[in-house]
Amino acid sequence: MTVITTTDLTKQYRSETAVNGLDLEIQDGEVYGFLGPNGAGKSTTISMLMDYVRPTAGTARILGCDPRDDVVEIHQRVGILPDRFSVYERLTGRRHLNYVIDSKNASDTPEELLARVGLGDAIDRQAGTYSNGMQQRLGVAMALVGSPDLLILDEPFTGLDPHGARTIRNIVYEENDRGAAVFFSSHVLGQVELVCDRIGILDDGNLIAEGRIDDLREQVAVESSLRFMLDHVPSGLDETLRAQDGVVKVTEDGNQVVVVTRGSNARWPVIQTIENTAASVVSFTIHEPSIEDVFIAHTTGRVESERSV
User: Fold this and answer.
1) Does domain 2-217 have CATH number 3.40.1190.20?
2) Could you tell me which of 131, 132, 87, 135 has the C-alpha nearest to residue 114?
3) I want to staple 293 with a disulfide (CB 3.0 to 4.6 A). Which of 48, 124, 259, 289 is the partner?
4) How do residues 224-262 score in pLDDT, each as one tens digit?
């Protein structure tokens, strides 16, 4: 079952196209990360999914419902952390939660939900006294009301310290284990890599890449670093390695040999070449391209070499 489907979804503002012909299919039980530079159209997409803005063209379905005709049902079944979430400064955390609990006729308690996001001790403080990270976690707690079938979180890691980011990450795991699908936009790339099943990359309103992280690495020529510690370095090894397809750079430092390759198909021949020498391999590590490297390669077409080499 698909929880989010968009077909040719488009939003134009006069001469500017914010989202261009977007086709998405997010499956039940999936954690999907929606990446893109600032201004790529991520928040506009979420706004169309929740009927905050109307598309210029195309269609969307949330849990099989039409965002325009079935808005009440969608808001009952979806937990949303909207873009630029803001609090009512004079209301306490408890009152924020009670408002959403009442509107959804849910059986949750503010104490339980705020404890989950690490705000149990601040439940009766005015939300205007919360830090930015605390306000963000309050918004996540509000999205959890009613055990939604789908969580849509727009930049949930914004303003969070490492402890807060781990709290939100654990909530994503817990909600997914419960059976909820999670769709979130983010530019905090390290968090995305930790929690997502699939990733879509939006750039200038266009979905330019989609798949599992390993798939996205294969789609662009990002570089990996292979580090070998040998008992000795055979004469001419660097020249032999440089002659192989996909090898970008070879450096030697004492008995350590570092080989930078482009594309995963280049790694195994390098390993075989070194194993076939008279040298013994003392240790071996591979430094995979990070999600940041993959993101940059997809959105700019640039390939950045392994920075530590």
Assistant:
1) no
2) 135
3) 289
4) 889 999 999 999 999 999 999 989 999 999 999 999 988
